[in-house]
């Protein structure tokens, strides 16, 4: 294993710490910088980091153990993740992962001994419309197939630097198949700011309230009310946070907005800052989208140059607002707004007790608005064009859907709020679909007979994830994938969720292996009741949805997963379970392994 | 052998008047903390001995096991001997009760799963500072270790679970009282805990 020189580590820690003000609130950002440099956060660097950032070693190790994209041991020159999100899974991501591991002579998740490469499975990389997808050193890999996998393994074996890899491996397309109000009428840079410049915050809020805009991240909280509550909270300092931690399996609309409409999103943040009286904002960008960061930084810089951001917005020195980008590090839970704020503060992403809500005590305990990318994007358009324009297509305007899975045209679809599930399926060419998963793993499975249901505020909330399942798809695959996802992503803070998700995963594993019995069925029934009822936050609240939906909506498939109850059979291959010790003690030679 | 009749979805021991309920216990990969908690039932033990017969376990060092009504299992599975004992319990006990964090979730012993057996043994017997005659122990007297530590319900059917580290004495009290009274045990909320 690679050993790092202490002097190199010390220099790196001083540099990274200095670039982040040696502020413990930036501990996660500093750790990420080390991870990038050394492909790990070396154990020797931990006390140095603690010293440099005026914090404790426990704080630093708590981050390394929590965030998926931080590791204790070097991941090597090439750090690969292959997405095993259900959309990628359906396109054969598992086989591709094994093919790559076989070619490189590694096991999933284990660094190769020569320090060259690590290949790990991961969950959604937000590229479900062009999967199977992955990441190499933070850069997106799209449309993986056998030949691309073979190319990649050849490039790695020959130690070809990433900038000399064929560009087509990294091509990300942002395909928008249906444009409506928002995507159909582009906004000139600064339009929204110019139109609110002469309005009072009260007037802007009234207009926003009249538009009926609500949280596009899925929770559907009225945006104007959130902004008003933050504005009216007593404090000198307020913050705007753009939640770009788009982690729900199957959603990628925020990726498209950040890539093609970053100005509109930032303009929405600037409007919000004006209304609530904030001078500082953050874009919390998920680790999987690190490749979008240079583009976003460039857009921010251009806006500063155009007086649309910075010390004197539109030349008004009383209007000051600037934005910095904070990176996530592979934790789904950080999409929950209070966990996101904890992570912004450089801590583990553990959801906070609420109340107080972020609007009164958010970032650094100051009033904070946390809005989804699409919410801010929509708010900018409403500020520029007025509520009547947004309201023309019915209550609440339009919503973007990220469509993936078994369909001819996976991509982005903008539909009026209230459209039916079937309309989206038809538009995407999902003929013969047997089911759709709306709102991702935390959402709901809808069978074909429910396709007439409307996607609106009261009946079917969605974050924008829309995964179509074709006639040959086994819905248990989806249930198993989502259940394992939640078991991996639970933050571990509260027992009902931590234990419940692990128990659910172990039952699902046995269902998959044909070793689930009647008592497991009872256990699942209990988990479905208990876990959501007792969990601390929404993750535990929704973690049992996949099992519940399979049980309630596909009873035949569900029942077939269980065998008759057993009494005394030993479910165990003792010889197999003794393989390691036998090898170690020479009972069986290593070559036979 | 006394018969067991299903009531609802669980089994309750039925017995003839004057006949004692036969109980056995074992500690697999555990710390005997659950057994200590079981002994902590205090004066109830006076009542219990009239109704229960403790036929096998670490408290009397009997190894043989036959026609047992209730088997109480503490600890996880970490070696081949644990597996054999558990198999013997499952085959000879009408009801099997998993007690404690290790039996139910793997607990403390399962922490080695994060590192892997090979890494643990190498660290302990080969690579650690101060090791003389580095060698992985191998002896017929030593049960061989499993690749992974497992909770017992991954390997056999378990009828009841008493969670806790250890389960409070009150939970054992309720278990024994219910057995004696021939009813389903009912645990108060504060008796069901995970730490």
Count of DSSP-assigned helices of chain B: 6
Helix content of chain B: 25-40%
Task: Estimate the helix proportion of chain A, in percent.
Answer: 40-55%
Low-confidence stretches of chain B: 1-10
Keywords (chain B): 3Fe-4S, Iron, Iron-sulfur, Metal-binding, Oxidoreductase
Pfam families (chain B): Oxidored_q6
Protein name (chain B): NADP oxidoreductase
Organism (chain B): Pseudohalioglobus sediminis
Structure, described:
- The complex is a heterodimer of chains A (593) and B (195).
- With 593 residues, chain A is α/β, with parallel strands linked by helices.
- Chain A folds into five domains: 6-66; 78-170, Glutaredoxin (3-Layer(aba) Sandwich); 176-391, Rossmann fold; 398-475, Ubiquitin-like (UB roll) (Roll), CATH 3.10.20.600; 477-559, NADH-ubiquinone oxidoreductase 51kDa subunit, iron-sulphur binding domain (de novo design (two linked rop proteins)), CATH 1.20.1440.230.
- Chain A has 26 helices and 14 strands.
- Chain A has helices at residues 6-19, 27-38, 45-52, 57-66, 86-90, 93-104, 146-157, 181-184, 191-196, 201-211, 223-232, 253-260, 262-276, 293-305, 337-344, 373-385, 387-391, 421-427, 475-489, 495-512, 518-534, 538-542, 545-553, 555-559, 574-577, 579-584, and strands at 78-83, 117-122, 134-136, 139-141, 176-178, 239-244, 280-285, 322-327, 368-372, 398-405, 411-416, 435-438, 444-447, 465-469.
- The two termini of chain A are 23 Å apart.
- In chain B, 37% of the residues are buried.
- Chain B contains six helices and nine strands.
- Chain B: This is NADP oxidoreductase.
